Model the fold of this input.
Amino acid sequence: MNNTKNDTRKIRSKTGRIILYAVLAAMLVCGISVYFSSKLPDKYYVFEEDTNNLESILNQEAFYPVTSSVTVTDSGYEIDFKLLGIMPLKRSEVKVVSEQSLMAGGQPFGIKFYTDGVIVVSMTDVETGDKKINPAYNSGIRVKDILTTVNGEKIKSNEHLTSLVKNCDGKELSIGIKRDKLIFEIKVTPVKDSSGTYRLGCWVRDSTAGIGTVTFYDTVNKTFAGLGHGICDSDTGELMTLSYGKALEAEIFSVIKGVAGTPGELRGSFNESNKIGTLYKNCNEGVFGTIEGNNLPDGQLYKIGFKQDIHEGPAKILCTIDDSGVQSYDIEIIHIYSNSVKTTKNMVVSITDETLLEKTGGIVQGMSGSPIIQDGKIIGAITHVMINDPAKGYGIFIENMLNEIN
Done:
């Protein structure tokens, strides 16, 4: 009887170990699959000129123990990756594009930016003498809202809105609102303050100005791109909607060196009479504009390097930090987020150039947009600095900027 019980225990113990080993093996295989899948981009770019040799080109994207094969689909091509030629890992889209070269930037430029409507940046009660009231807030207007119209008339500026409110004679106004992706109207009746002036009860902003760096010029279409990230309102953090804007020649006259906890800054100035071009788009991936006349600088043309071309290791950035003009500085790409849902923080870079570290401490405000060059190709741009380590920061893939230029 005891022998039977012991045998049963042994069988159960052996079965438990087998199940445990099976679970651990499955977890290991799953972990390996996830690891290798993360190394493979969701989308590959191939130039039209290379489609005849597509199979061999895309096969080069595989690496041991990953194998690949190309499939022709109704919409184009796909590349299938397998682990050891057996276990499916990922199916990636293949996008065929025209071969293109871009002139790398690195020049500072001034930005004069006017919003489409006005942004509500704060609320303030109106003192009417015996009490305080906030007609804007009470009607449903909130910080970060964009006010676009008053009684159907488009708001052109802060001053224009103030004039429309002052002359309302105490009548109810219908104000057009943009909130995220919603567009609607709110009814609000301004009130007189203690001086007898009609007020809404909110502070608004209609423009901003600053300095950034040009990433590239498209010499064929006479367009340019810069910053690598959008222009956001300093109070609300919201992307500012562009009504119109100007890109202006800028001059850097000093640098505030960055230290851990405090970002540095390029200090400069610009003259509105020295116009580079007109801005037509502000989005998460940067600002984009058309070049004015023949305002193309002298610069080097680079072939485009897509994310599948980028690798961890040495690279360079082009930027201007003093009156010596655009210079090249050494960096290291230390991590690549091939499949990140973010369109701006696609790689982590570290400044390794001793000259740049000595002068700036690393990445500083105003360097956003500095083009990144690796293996003779333009692959992206600097976008953000790590506040606690200014020698490190983030970069955007050049393809994400190119997707927005048109």
Notes: The chain has three domains: 14-99, 101-112+208-402, 125-200. Residues 2-38 form the longest helix (37 residues).
